[in-house]
Write a structure and sequence with these properties.
Flagellar motor protein MotB, single chain, cell projection, cilium
Length: 329
C-alpha cells in the first residue's frame, strides 16, 4: 500500500509540473501574440495614410513626373540649342580670326603707305633745287620786264605763261613784214641789253661774274638767253623763217652793240649765254584766224634757259662754279 501511495504521489507531482510548463508556454505565447499585435499595429500606422492624402500625393507625384518629363525635353532642347550656339561661336571665332588677319594686312599696307607718304613729303634735293631755280628765273624776268616798262610804258611786253620768257608782241619792235629796227625800236633793244647786262653777272660765269648769295640765294645758273624770232602764217615758210631769223639776228646785233659786255656772260660750259633762234610760224601762241591773233604771233621772245642738273652731284658742280667766281677779287 505504501508503495502504491508513493507511486500515486510521484504521478501527481509529475502532473503538477506538466501543468506549470503548459501554463508558462501559453503565457509566453500570449505575450508573443500581444507583442506581434503591437508591432503589427505600429507597421500599419506608418504605412497606411488617409485616401484623400494618398490621392493628393498621387496628383503631386503625377505633376512632378510631368514636370520632370517637361524639364527633360527642355534640357534636350537646350543642349541642342547650346550645340548650335557653340558651332556658331566657332564660326564667328573663325570669322574674327580672318577679319583680324585682314586688319593686320591692311594695317601693314597703311604703314607702308604712311612711310611712302612721309618719304614723298621729304624734300627731294633735286626737285627742291629745280623749283627754286624756276622761281629765281621768274623773279629775274619780272624785274627785267618792270624795268623795261618803266623806260617804255607803251611797249607791249609780257611774261610768258610758263614764266620762262619775255614776250615782245605785235608791232612792239618790228613793222609788219620788216626785219629792220627803226631808231626808236633800236633804243628799246639797247636799253634791254643794258638791263640784261646788269642782271646776268649774278647768274653766269666769266670775267664779269659777280655771284653772291644775296642776289642769287638759289644758286641758279643761266644756260642761255635766247632771242627767238616768230611770225604769223600769212606768208610761206621760205619767207617767214628767214624773216624770223633776220629779226632775231638784228635784235642780237643791236643788243651786243649797245652793251659790249653782254657776250662775256658765260654758262657752265664757258659759252656765251646770249644766242639766237628762229621758228617762223611754227610756234604760234594763239590762233592766226584773226588779225589780233596774227599780231600776237608776230613777236620776239627773250627766253631764259637755266642749267638743269640731272642729280645732286650736278647741283654741287653748279654751286662750286658760282662760288669760285664769287670768291675772285
Amino acid at each position: 500500500m505504501r508503495a502504491q501511495a508513493k507511486q500515486v504521489r510521484r504521478e501527481e507531482e509529475e502532473e503538477s509540473a506538466f501543468v506549470s510548463m503548459t501554463d508558462m508556454t501559453v503565457g509566453f505565447l500570449f505575450i508573443m501574440m500581444i507583442l506581434l499585435a503591437f508591432f503589427a499595429s505600429q507597421v500599419r500606422s506608418t504605412e497606411t495614410v488617409p485616401r484623400a492624402e494618398y490621392e493628393k500625393l498621387q496628383i503631386e507625384r503625377n505633376e512632378l513626373r510631368d514636370l520632370a518629363e517637361t524639364q527633360a525635353v527642355t534640357i534636350v532642347s537646350l543642349e541642342t540649342a547650346n550645340a548650335d550656339l557653340m558651332r556658331q561661336i566657332q564660326k564667328l571665332e573663325e570669322l574674327i580670326r580672318q577679319l583680324r588677319s585682314q586688319i593686320d594686312a591692311k594695317d601693314a599696307t597703311i604703314d607702308e603707305l604712311r612711310a611712302e607718304l612721309a618719304r614723298l613729303k621729304e624734300a627731294d634735293p633735286l626737285e627742291d633745287y629745280l623749283s627754286r631755280v624756276s622761281a629765281a628765273r621768274r623773279d629775274v624776268l619780272t624785274r627785267l620786264r618792270d624795268a623795261i616798262l618803266a623806260d617804255f610804258p607803251d611797249l607791249k611786253v609780257e611774261l610768258s605763261e610758263e614764266s620762262d620768257a619775255l614776250r615782245f608782241q605785235g608791232e612792239g619792235l618790228f613793222a609788219s613784214g620788216s626785219s629792220e629796227l627803226t631808231p626808236d625800236k633800236t633804243a628799246i633793244v639797247s636799253k634791254l641789253a643794258e638791263r640784261l647786262d646788269q642782271i646776268l653777272p649774278c647768274f653766269t660765269l666769266g670775267e664779269t661774274s659777280s655771284f653772291d648769295e644775296i642776289c642769287n640765294p638759289s644758286y641758279a645758273m643761266v644756260e642761255a638767253v635766247q632771242i627767238e624770232g616768230h611770225t604769223d602764217n600769212d606768208a610761206e615758210d621760205n619767207v617767214n623763217r628767214p624773216l624770223s631769223a633776220n629779226r632775231a639776228n638784228n635784235t642780237f646785233f643791236a643788243m651786243t652793240n649797245a652793251a659790249k659786255g653782254v657776250m662775256q656772260h658765260l654758262n657752265l660750259k664757258m659759252q656765251p649765254v646770249l644766242s639766237v633762234a628762229a621758228y617762223g610760224a611754227d610756234r604760234p601762241i594763239t590762233s592766226n584766224d584773226t588779225s589780233e591773233g596774227k599780231a600776237t604771233n608776230r613777236r620776239i621772245d627773250l627766253r631764259f634757259i637755266m642749267v638743269t642738273p640731272q642729280d645732286t652731284g650736278g647741283i654741287q658742280v653748279i654751286r662750286d662754279a658760282l662760288q669760285a667766281v664769287g670768291e675772285q677779287p
